[in-house]
Amino acid sequence: MRSLLIFMTVPVVLAACTNVLDPAESPVDVTPSPAAGSTRVAASATPTVLPPSATATVPVRATATAPSVPRATATAPPTATVPVPPTAVAPPTATVVVSPTQAPAPTSPAIPVPGNVIPPIAVVPAFPSLNDGALGRRLLYFAEVPDGSRRAVVVEQAGRVRLLSLASPPSGAELFLDISDRVSTQGNEEGLLGLAFDPDYAHNGRFYVHYSATNPRRSVISRFVADAAAGRADPASEQVVLEVGQPFSNHNGGMIDFGPDGYLYVALGDGGSGGDPQGNGQNLATLLGSILRIDPGRGGARQGYSVPNDNPFVGRPATEALTEIWAYGFRNPFRFSFDRSTGELWAGDVGQNAWEEVNVVTKGGNYGWNVMEGAHCYRSTPCDMSGLIPPVVEYPTREPGCAVTGGYVYRGASIPGLAGVYLYADFCSGIIWGLRRIDGRVVAARQLLDTDLQISSFGQDLAGELYITAFDGRVYRIAGGR
Ligand SMILES: [Ca+2]
Q1: Distance 143 CA to ligand 1 centre (A)
Q2: Given its phi and psi angles, is residue 392 left (phi above 0), alpha (psi -120 to 50 degrees) or beta?
């Protein structure tokens, strides 16, 4: 199925929307690979979805003027009716189901409405001065370099990272790092999947990457060092932090980022194939199917990292639970982000073939896979949803898309009305949605834009402005719309 990194060519993607995209479900893409040898293999967790019965479903929006405005169903207390945003710039057909919040704050007002309106957006080329292909093709990530130089990096799946100026229209991009010699792109979802700058990058030049490697097939988290002034990293400076064996080529997760607590968070999918045949999502004795939280700076007995003492499973024997795990029950959490204002961790989790979901991730939380897919039973029906945390929002996989691309809560200054809105997208359809969540409750959600892009990731600059990377080899900026 579509796992997030479903990078493919356009024709393939179209097909994928029906099934090819998701290797897991399609025999076509399922390439069982030998389990990795010496590397640490993680297994994952158990689903955590709120029992549907516990939550009332309130149809959130239906705009009369826009027949096809996403009908969002908010699972919120009956009293919470979400006013329909005035200007619905929303293309029809998309259905967004907002599921109940795990813990609705009783004190939260039904809807003090200035906050429930989500303004329209536009997507514009961020670097129109660049020639086609200057940044590579299958772009997967964008981030501003945190050293005050007003430069940004763009990650290409094949293993290259390019550097360009944000201060003035760049005439070209420089090669910041090229590790294509060690990055595997054998699988459609393999490659250089993520990059995170050390919080102290301006002084130590350190940054981390998450990539796929072979022999044995595995996910690698490594640290590199860059010469900030020169704007170039040394490929030979690699220090492997963590390696995790991958049984299949798909569902590798990929996101890597530092939280506001200074620790490194790493997303790993369920190991691949389709339906989680190894049960990794619910197995705490494997790192697969989880979001990890590690300290890569102090070293440690294991590999090149240590485990923070306040991780949720510290103290449990490794045969029961691995201490690196922060949350589990994920299928393929390809993209996650931290709200720079609240510190909340938001993660998109790509579904098998029925439901795409977005979760707000909490310490030790079980997000359900493969007992559940979205807010629905997956492995068997009915199912025991107790202890499983349901998504904040979900939408049907095939209509309108194929795979969710988790985004960011907008905290920039250029679009004031968008402040506090979480943006996310679908890789195949190019649709971008926004939702506003207050006190644990979704108070507004709607489709914002229907693009023609294969949206592989969102990115953020230091000012909180948002960007999009696409498979057409371009980076786009989120701007105000009309
Ligand atoms: Ca889930």
Answers
A1: 27
A2: alpha
Q: Kindly state whether residue 3 falls inside one of the protein's structural domains.
A: no
Distance 438 CA to ligand 1 centre (A): 21
CA of 347 to the centre of ligand 1 (A): 10
Here the CATH number for the domain that contains residue 258 is: 2.120.10.30
Domain extent, residue 412, equals: 10-480
The total domain count for the chain is 1
Q: Judging by beta carbons within 10 Å of its beta carbon (0-12, 13-18, 19+), is residue 315 exposed, middle or buried? A: exposed
CA of 460 to the centre of ligand 1 (A): 25
Residue 5 domain flag: no
Per-residue pLDDT of the chain (482 residues; tens, 9 = 90+): 444 444 333 222 222 332 223 333 322 222 223 233 223 322 222 222 222 223 322 222 222 222 222 233 333 333 333 333 333 333 333 445 554 444 333 344 444 445 578 999 999 999 999 999 999 999 999 999 999 999 999 999 999 999 999 999 999 999 999 999 999 999 999 999 999 999 999 999 999 999 999 999 999 999 999 997 888 999 999 999 999 999 999 999 999 999 999 999 999 999 999 999 999 999 999 999 999 999 998 655 456 899 999 999 999 999 999 999 999 999 999 999 999 999 999 999 999 999 999 999 999 999 999 999 999 999 999 999 999 999 999 999 988 799 999 999 999 999 999 999 999 999 999 999 999 999 999 999 999 999 999 999 999 999 999 999 999 999 999 999 98
What's the 316 CA to ligand 1 centre distance in angstroms?
A: 24
Residue 274 tokens read as: 């389709």
Is residue 99 within 8 A of residue 389, CB to CB? The reply is no
Residue 441: C-alpha distances to residues 105, 155, 339, 470 (Å): 7, 34, 16, 31
The Å distance, Cα 244 to ligand 1 centre, comes to: 22
Q: How far is the CA of 389 from the centre of ligand 1 (A)?
A: 7
